[in-house]
UniProtKB/TrEMBL annotation:
PANTHER family: HTH-TYPE TRANSCRIPTIONAL REGULATOR BETI, HTH-TYPE TRANSCRIPTIONAL REGULATOR RUTR. This is TetR family transcriptional regulator. Residues 27-46 bind DNA. One of its GO terms (molecular function) is transcription cis-regulatory region binding. InterPro entries: Homeodomain-like_sf, HTH-type_TetR-like_transc_reg, HTH_TetR, PsrA_TetR_C, Tet_transcr_reg_TetR-rel_C_sf. Residues 4-64 form the HTH tetR-type domain. It comes from the Bacteria.
Amino acid sequence: MSESATPVRLLDAAEELLAVSGPAGTSVRDVLRRAGVGNAAAVGYYFGDKDGLVAAVERRVVDGVVADRARALGALDGDAGVEALVDGWVRPIVALRCAGRGRYAARVFTRIFDQPPARWEANGAAAVRAMAGRYCAALAPLLPHLDARELAWRWQCVTATTDFYAIGALDFGEPAPGPDDVDPHVRRLVVPGSALLRAERTG
């Protein structure tokens, strides 16, 4: 194994273990074993300590989703509808879940906003929030019945539903999804999400 591959192997191994056991149940020794890295000092060398490794795993998940959402938004033309925008937002999380990574990814997104705002630039929360703002700006002309506050609230509801899907809270006994389930599962989130956004205000 090349030296340049070592941090990626450690990140991959840590993410797999964190998805199952969380930070408290994941040891540096387990990560090294799963990664096939024999140098016990490797985690300290690349990430400082276990906390640094966990933070790096989390930021990699966040950055990947933000980049996917940016690409989806950039690929849409001026005639994109509400469904296409919801699709661009939820699809990266669905793809993580269908690849077996979603449960931990969803916990990552919950945890970054639970930290003090002073940490948001470092942990990716600021990037997620900024991307949400870009999506809401694209949606605003399509939903003139919603003011900015109501649109942001409903968009957070779409986001929360997506995270609940990612951790399996909406499965109701269904088997875990696989790679072939991405499109139908995206659709299951896009339909109610779009309906929520289009619904008239009641108050």
